[in-house]
Amino acid sequence: MTTVIDGNAVASDLRDRLTGRIDDLATEGVTPTLATVLMSDDPASETYVSMKQSDCEEVGIATRDVEIDPDAPAERLFDTLDDLNSDPEVDGVLVQMPTPDQVADSEVIRRLDPMKDVDGFHPENVGLLVRGDPRYKPCTPHGVQHLLDHAGVETEGADVVIVGRSNIVGKPLANMLLQKTAGGNATVTVCHSRTDDLAAHTGRADIVVAAAGVPELVDGSMLAEDSVVIDVGVNRVETEDGSTLVGDVAFDSASELASAITPVPGGVGPMTRAMLLYNTVKAAHLRRDLAFDGL
Ligand SMILES: NC(=O)c1ccc[n+]([C@@H]2O[C@H](COP(=O)([O-])OP(=O)(O)OC[C@H]3O[C@@H](n4cnc5c(N)ncnc54)[C@H](OP(=O)(O)O)[C@@H]3O)[C@@H](O)[C@H]2O)c1
Fold first, then answer.
1. Structural domains of the chain ordered from first start
2. Could you tell me which residue ranges the Tetrahydrofolate dehydrogenase/cyclohydrolase catalytic domain spans (predicted)?
3. Which end of the chain is more exposed for a tag (fewer CB within 10 A), N or C?
4. Could you tell which of 10, 47, 169 is best to mutate to test the pocket of ligand 1, judged by most ligand atoms within 8 Å of the CB?
């Protein structure tokens, strides 16, 4: 029988445990604080930021809501980041991507104080992750790793195929699953748009993680029996009745083969949101030299 891994339930459990840690911090007079920076009038970006703020409020993380005119020069954003970097009350800074054309995303990431980089994208944090000494794991791959652990999926010795090599999902996840630690020790293959015969790779994998941004790219015919399938993709597709969200996996046909599978929505998405809270709480500890040994 196929297990559908319930990301909402796992994320809810994680949020409950984070709330306990935030209560502990309160006894020391500390309120973790996340600053969100929005330099866009894209409705989707506005929605993402307000969701992140309400997630914070739910668990007791304070927020700073900074909005910058999308037509402003890049220096306006950099000055804002300098102010947030030097503000002792701010633990984490999240710049909603993408930024407007006059601002290079890579420059934004480098401008952040790495201790406040709760997305885990700063080169210093990427380097620590690759070396096996992560400070902040990027939220989506961290969510995937946590889901696998929670579902009792053994990664040690497993053949894992990741479809997608982006800096925010595929590459960091590959590094995390390679590490000589619990939740790692996998043999990892990373596929991408130039991969010859994707199905040959996915079809021999114990674990397939689809993060390509292509609706229903991976279907049951491309999977080994009893594999574990994690669907990171979120794609809006038009239907006769309007539009709907689908993943990078054809859920029905994949479910016939998979031993466990994540749905879209309700799989990886809620975990990404929860891991931002986790990193913010971790930042509040690290910045004050308080011990944080996970949850
Ligand atoms: N659930 C969440 O919380 C969450 C978080 C982040 C992203 N996402 C979703 O995850 C998906 C991926 O996001 P992303 O930011 O990583 O995307 P991205 O930056 O566009 O990267 C997509 C990757 O998939 C590869 N790819 C594209 N088409 C392919 C194909 N036909 N066969 C094999 N590989 C292919 C690309 O290869 P090349 O490198 O060769 O171009 C690229 O490496 C999107 O649907 C996004 O919305 C979800």
1. 28-132+271-286 (3.40.50.10860), 153-264 (3.40.50.720)
2. 5-119
3. N
4. 169
Ligand 1 center from residue 2 Cα (angstroms): 25
Distance 213 CA to ligand 1 centre (A): 4
Q: Name the residue type at position 249.
A: V
What pLDDT, in 10s, does the model give residues 144-188?
999 999 999 999 999 999 999 999 999 999 999 999 999 999 999
Q: For residues 139 and 24, what is the distance between their CA atoms, to the nearest angstrom?
A: 23
pLDDT tens string 75-104: 999 999 999 999 999 999 999 999 999 999
Q: Which atom from ligand 1 is nearest to the alpha carbon of 248? A: 45
Q: Is 159 in the active site?
A: no
Q: And the tokens for 105?
A: 């995303």
